[in-house]
Structure formats: structure tokens, C-alpha cells
User: Fold this.
Amino acid sequence: MGAMDREWFYKDKDTKPVRRPASAPRIGSGVQRSPSGRVPLWALEESLNGQLTEYGHGRKTHSRKPKRVRQPRGRRSGRGLRLGTVGVIALVVGLYLTPTIFDRYIFAAALPYLPGSPVPPHGVDASDVPLGLPPASNGSTSFVLQESPDDSQDYVAYDPCRPVDYVVRPDFAPPGTDGLIEEAVAEISAATGLTFAYRGITSEAPSENRDTYQPDRYGKRWAPILISWTSPAEIPGLEGDVAGLGGSLYAHTPGKPFVYVAGQVQLDAPALTENLQYPAGRDQVRAVIVHELAHVVGLDHVDDPSQLMYEENNGLTALGDGDRAGLALLGAGPCVSQL
Assistant:
């Protein structure tokens, strides 16, 4: 299950400008616009200079009567005109910049508190410092990170300044798998330094279109990682030789890094039941869970059969040096309390 973009801040590229009534005043009417629809600053200044020139010639408007203006007093008249011009330009430039300011700051800050918001309040359970520290890297480069949605950001990771919550749907769990999920989570936690917090069992079914925020089910916080025992009948992506799927969804607020906020691990219960019948079968099933959890926190497959993140199951049951180096890096991601 690959990572998907979830940019929750307001960014509606298809929004059309609202048409004002014919009687309402228009700001920037007749001003040249760029191909993006923005009004360049030079165009605003050119338009304003033209309007001021027309005003100086005594041209009247047709929408309202000219206001009575006091006569200027001596030398203050020129200064007043200059200050007035600067004020008008500042006002129009401010209006020109308002959509960007609104999207980046005002709307982003208010969105979590609007009815039906798709995101939780900012900084739930967040600390000022990381809750744990990743182990020192062993120097191996035999790992691959999930692709970042932003070219300026090398990788995406979970916020180390808050716990990584997870829940388990135990339905269809094969006999003999008690404790395997807890063991696998503990191994990933130790390899990353991330603090995982078990939030109990859930009735939530796995889904390819899972919501990252479910306040009615999990409260006003990002949805926890969902670990499910399932089957190809419920999740078609498990058909064939696929024993499990894992991945996370990310979010980001303007001006801050992308951060993973919710994920899933989907385990093929019928296939893994068969694995349990082989010698060291329990260790192999635990390795599958570790492999999928490593996907959840940000590792991708690597073309090195000596690593657990190798795509084919070749009997390995422990993390390799490359796996551990990649996981240590993912445990040192940025803290983003604005999410």
C-alpha cells in the first residue's frame, strides 16, 4: 500500500472568481492579469496612476455623486496626495495578496475547528521534544525510502514528538499468533526510536480509502495505524503471493514538512495460517508483520536479498543492517506540532 497525498490545507484550483453585482465597486477593473489570473504589481500601479490622473482632471463617476472635499491648506496638499497614493497602493496590494495569506495562515489555522473538518485540532499529544531517540546508524546504505511528495524534502516520517498510535482488528487472526503484533511493533519501535502506543482493539474494517481523521471512532486526533487480519476476499490487493500490505498517508500544513499521520497493515490470514505450519513458522509470520510495519514508517523495497525489506520472502526473519540504518533515519524526522 503506497503512500497517498493528503494536503488538507485549502487549495481549490478550480474555484472561479465570484462575480460582483454591476452596482458594486470593482477593485482592479480593467487591470492586466497574468496567465495565472493574478494581477502583477506593475499593472496595479499603472492602473492606479491612470485613475489618479483622471481624478486630477475632474472626471466624475456615474455611480455616485462626488463627495465634498475640504480645500487643502498650503504646502500640506502635496504631501497629502503622496501619502494618499501610497495608502491606496498598499490597500490594493494587500487585497491582491489576501488569497495567499488567507489560504496559508487564516484558513489553515481555522480548518480544524470548522464543522465537519477533515483534520483534528493542532498538536494533539505533541511534545516539545522527541519522545525517544533512534539508535546510531551503522553506516549501511542498503535501504530505500518511500518517495517524498516534495522535491525539497528527502523523505517523509512520523512525528517523533508524539506517540504513534495503533489499533488491532483481531477478527480472523490465525491460532498461534497471539503476541506477534506486539513483538513486531516493539522491534520497529526499537529500530526507529519512535514511541508506539497501543489503543486497543477496533471493529474498523481495512479499506483502500481509509479516512485519516475519524473523531466519532477515535476522538479528535489523527486515526491510529490500523493492523488487520484479513483476506483477499476483503482486500483484493492480497491476491496471489502477497502475504501483507503496509503503508501510510501523509498530511502537511503550509510552510512545514510533510508528515505521516495514519497508516495500515493488512495481513493475509489464510496465507499466514499456512506459514505457521512450517518450521520456524511463527518467526516467519512475525517477520512479515515487521516488513509491513517498516513500509508504514517509510521504508520501501530494496534490491538486496540480505535485507528483510527485499520484496521476495526468502526465509529471513530478522532486520538486516540496511533495514536498521533506514529505520534509524526515519526515526529522526521533524516534529510538526502544527498538524
